[in-house]
Amino acid sequence: MFNLNKGPRRGRGAAALAVAGLAAMSLVACSTGPGAGAGAGSASDLDAALEKGGELTYWTWTPSGEAQAEAFMKEYPNVEVTVVNAGTATDQYTKLQNAITAGSGAPDVAQIEYYAIQQFALSEGLLDLSSYDFGELEDKYTPSTWSAVNLNGGIYGLPQDSGPMVMFYNTTVFDQFGLSVPTTWDEYIATAAKLHEADPSKYITNDAGDPGFAQPLIWQAGGHPYQADGTDVTINLQDEGTKRWADTWNQLLEPGLLSDIPTWSDDWYKALGDGSLATIVTGAWMPGVLESSLPEGAGHWRVAPLPSYDGSAATAENGGSAQSVIKQSKNPALAAAFLRWLNSSDESVDVFLENGGFPSTTAQLNADEFLNATPEYFGGQEINKVLVDASANVVDGWEYLPFQVYANSVFADTVGQAYANRSDLNTGLLAWQDNLITYGNSQGFTASE
Amino acid sequence: MTTSLRTVNPKARRGFSITRPRKSAALTVVMLLFLIYAVVPLLWLVINASKTQADLFTTFGLGFGDSFALWDNIVATFTYRDGIFLRWLGNTLLYVVAGAGGATLLATLAGYGLAKFTFPGKKLYFAVVLGAVAVPGTALAVPTFLLFSQMGLTNTPWSIIIPSLITPFGLYLIWVYTIDSVPTELLEAARLDGASELRTFFTISLKLLTPGVVTVALFSVVATWNNYFLPLIMLSDPAWYPLTVGLNQWSSQASGVAAEPIYNLVITGSLITIVPIVIIFLFLQRFWQSGLSAGSVKQ
């Protein structure tokens, strides 16, 4: 079949090359040490800036972005916020990295996924917000999202959404084949085999090799493949947790129990709609996507906790973004004030919720109305209880690489080969590790195993 | 190269000649394969532009869906997000008219000048132009970005138009074409009659050069219309995107947190995007052919 995503993917590859060229000049900036504090003021500046007003540019691809900015401008009429959709995820990072390297053209505030924040923080792109007393906001957020913005002793953004991992399953397919909902990965593998044997056109799930999927699962398994201390980076993609994931996933990959449809392609939506994929293992933000983009799935899907390795409720974060103030901003106090309102005020987070987002603020997550909701799409199940439970069970201590955007872009060339050949993932992980160590050293880091 | 008639076997059976060659079954099959190769994606595009997103996800790719939604898709494409698609179409037209139009004008003037005038440094200049043909535009995109960024031109239409103005290949084509089709004697006659160089160029040479100019214009129009990488890194404001980058943005919003797939609009938008270029091609293809073969046969 024709895969609509192939063209754009190639484009992204080319863009990644370009950003790699520019990054060669930018990543070494980290050797000067984080948080020079240029332009940062104090907490009292924020209210004064809101009063005085001014213009801000805000880059986001969040569907609620426009509505949130409008609500903000209604409350603070002196401020004008221009919302720009500069691309989704890596498309935007390319532009952002280019603008930061070039020294002009970056927005005041930008959406950045958790995995990429470390990279932008270390390359001196983001403003450390701790001098505005943003540290006092910590209690508002789930611990896992807060730790994703609280890096190198600074605060490099405020969390917007979160994606604690859960398992969505198609109950119609489960009933049809007499399957029970797996609670451990061993059961998951057995269920996968049973389903595929009963109907070879059906798979437990799809995985064509996706770093945004593999890494959270390594995280859940207790892996700590990346450790960074200043410019010293250790990469060990064969530590106990990482091997645990690879050995488990091999049992699905090697016998052909995984569909090789790429996630987010038109074929993938099609496979979700016609029941050929029985589960989706992903972040808690998925209900909004299912309801708006897969109307034919209504009534078929249910939510269960992520299968575990050892019976514990451990899970990990998949996806999710923070918003950060870019150091280039000519009005950092106003940008910080907008950000504080955007990701911590009830008015703003409520708009985000209405648009189907899954927030990171505990007040909204623990509200009775939210917890007791029984969406019809999920057969009246109280899905938010499962999702919020997951948000409390995220394993702590996970770190991403300070060049994670690059790392993810070469996943397909290394680990992806093991996926394509249905061979041992450990071999692919080692190839990835070699690539990352070489790249890290070429960027001014001291990278080692 | 000279066309030699001796290659035709005089003992060949009657009914075949150089203008009516013998039919070859193998070649016909190969040609049919190429035809399918070229037409099937186009067919897929037309068929799927008529489907709703639900049909796209549930029905066979090369068959029609349960409903025929081509018109609805076209309306939705032009009205989605306050009609941003129309803006992108306008941007592409702007880049094509200013960029490809300017490129054709500059290439014509420079190629003609190089072919018909002598001036100091001409050989060096020509060597630089020939060398520039070998450098792919993509390789220059990042340095150009850094340069433009220093000049404060990124995120403006100029960042697309200015790089599009340069077409070393077009210049080279006009140079070859001028040497072949504008006799120096004619220019000397015009000069004797007292015509200025500009007047000679516009009233005599340009008419002789028309097929070459149209060829260069076609090359530039196609290149600018399809330009993807340069606008991708130059522009961050969707209000200045051309269609190529805009459609990619629509396509990639199908992924990740808060995914909003609009595959039906991406497909319909792609179909609308190729229609003008197909029309231009059909309209101007005879010039294209004669321009491409310029210089290949010595008269």
From TrEMBL, chain A:
Residues 1-31 form the signal peptide. Keywords: Signal. This is Sugar ABC transporter substrate-binding protein.
UniProtKB/TrEMBL annotation, chain B:
GO terms for cellular component: plasma membrane. SUPFAM superfamilies: MetI-like. Gene3D superfamilies: MetI-like. Pfam families: BPD_transp_1. InterPro entries: MetI-like, MetI-like_sf. One of its GO terms (biological process) is transmembrane transport. CDD domains: TM_PBP2 (cd06261). Keywords: Cell membrane, Membrane, Transmembrane, Transmembrane helix, Transport. Belongs to the binding-protein-dependent transport system permease family. This is Carbohydrate ABC transporter permease.
